[in-house]
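can u pls check wat happens w/ NAP
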Amino acid sequence: MGSIGNKTERGAKLPFVFINMAMTADGKIATANRTVSSFGSHRDYIELLNLRATADAVMAGARTVDLNSVTMGPGPIQFRRRRMKHGLAEYNLRVVVSRSGSVNPEAEIFKHRFSPIIILTTRRATRQRLECLRALADEVRICGDTEIHFPKSLRWLREKWGVRRLLCEGGGEVNDALFRAGLVDELHLTVCPKIFGGRSAPTIADGTGACCLDQATQLDLKSARAWKNEMFLVYQVMKVGPRTARRRGATEISGEGSSPAR
Ligand SMILES: NC(=O)c1ccc[n+]([C@@H]2O[C@H](COP(=O)([O-])OP(=O)(O)OC[C@H]3O[C@@H](n4cnc5c(N)ncnc54)[C@H](OP(=O)(O)O)[C@@H]3O)[C@@H](O)[C@H]2O)c1
């Protein structure tokens, strides 16, 4: 991928931010009781690894990290080779977002030490929790009093840790904060042929959300590809106001058997 780390993706200071999520046809990313959140095909999993192979860092919220047995790593050797071929470190950095520092110290991610783990938190985290997290992570960064200041945090990730491409893998609460802060550049969405239902089942953007149409994040469909019963969609986020610089490109739509865009 020739565009890895390309400055034209985003100005000099912020990383290029892309989100990757799988959702059911009714827009859910997990069941209401949170026990099922992995429901995509093997093809979807490969696409997740393909995207990770282009990212300096993978980021997720505290509940995504501690409710699942995730390592947020690059996967098998062929994906790591691809990273190195494009000038990336063999293993991506891992970033965990936890406002109150409540992330479970027993979470699987902390048992895998192949690359640095960075925790972004706020002054809401007690001293005791901070001490515990500092023993687990390579760096714990306090990024605000009660809420994480994402623009500052992302700038810091770029400056201190060299993160030019940041892949966010949810959950809904963290995604929503990034969308509301206008920090997302691209959304990769796999629509899976299932209905979970459930009013309290999480979606790709929960949190506080928009309260009027003007606040909605506007998307530009870049590609839509079907593979068996799944749809692989890639949206570019349309920037408004001073950030209006997005070019509307041709949308690719193709059918069964073609390879997905990512
Ligand atoms: N299908 C998929 O592709 C997919 C992908 C990812 C996750 N999931 C599923 O989605 C569910 C988790 O989603 P979720 O929305 O409940 O949780 P989440 O976004 O993963 O994590 C929520 C936690 O992250 C921290 N957080 C969120 N927003 C924050 C902000 N603006 N500033 C600072 N900290 C913030 C808070 O941690 P503290 O409580 O520590 O303050 C919050 O409790 C799980 O069931 C997971 O398995 C599905």
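The chain is about 20% helix and 25% strand.
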